Amino acid sequence: MKLLVFGLGYTARALARRLGSDWTIAGTSRAGDSGCLRFDREHPLPASAFHDVTHILVSIPPDEVGDPTFDLHRADIALKSLQWLGYLSTTGVYGTRDGGWVDEGSELRPTSARAERRAAAEREWLKMGAHVFRLAGIYGPGRSVFDALRTGSAKRIDAGGQVFSRIHVDDIAAVLLASIARPRPGAIYNVCDDEPAAQEAVVAYAAALLGMAPPPLLPLAEAELSPMARSFWADNKRVSNALIKGELGVALAYPSYREGLAAVLAAGG
Fold it and tell me: What does each C-alpha distance from 206 to 19, 154, 217 come to in angstroms?
């Protein structure tokens, strides 16, 4: 089998590491480095890149114009006899529910232009029979709160009961593998752990694991966040992961941030 990944980054590489020796993997990057094919709006892939491809994963976010992979290569993808097509989206498409729960059937209410573009891209990919994976906040080795704590840049923010859902990168890979094994074109899956939690609780727990005092608790208005960082605080919701368990049979290795952060630290992260 041959997997073509548009955007062979942090998450897609976690999947690639878990595929067996009977897989061939090709991926793209904007620079075309590290053995990847170069891909962006000015550099579409040659037709030969799709030769014998059986699975495609799209991990590139849409830009201000639209989804570059869809815009440039939907015809190539539609003409392939694919066994599986996956699109990585975000739980940000749900917007805010003032702390309430959402599942895959919930109405989409994006609160930012970035999330609106994601919702629009989802609609296009679903027409192609893609499997859409709405990812919560991603963390794992080399990408966790430990990095900010060690450099002294971590902030612990009191946002008045606001919670976020998260997911360890290895659990994302497990969900993708389960979907590949049991394809259902047009399926939508929330990919998150069991315990939505406040950011300040996660930072405090990580600090305790490092034997450090946690950063002082700051009101959101005093946190001096960039406009990009502040946009992530516009939403407050809890995301259900019942479908990946019930339909795909996924048992999360890291059902909460506690198990996940402990594993990252044990692995040297």
Answer: 31, 11, 14
Residue 89 CB neighbours (<10 A): 24
Nearest residue to 246 via CA among 180, 182, 198: 182
**List of residues 6+ apart from 237 with CB closer than 8 A:** 91, 94, 95, 96, 97, 98, 99, 100, 101, 102, 163, 165, 196
State pLDDT tens for residues 139-182: 999 999 999 999 999 999 998 889 999 999 999 999 999 999 99
Does residue 269 have a pLDDT over 70? no
Residue 164's DSSP bridge partners are 197
For residue 45, how far is the Cα from the chain centroid? Answer: 24
pLDDT surpasses 80 at 258: yes
Where do we find the tokens 């930012």? 112
Nearest to 34 by CA among 53, 8, 57: 8
- The residues pairing with 106 across neighbouring beta strands, listed in sequence order, are none
CA neighbor of 160 nearest in space, from 207, 221, 101, 226: 221
The model's pTM = 0.96
Residues in the chain: 269
How far apart CA 188 and CA 119 sit, in angstroms, is 12
DSSP 194-226: S--B-HHHHHHHHHHHHT-PPPPEEEGGGS---
Give the three-class secondary structure for 86. Answer: strand
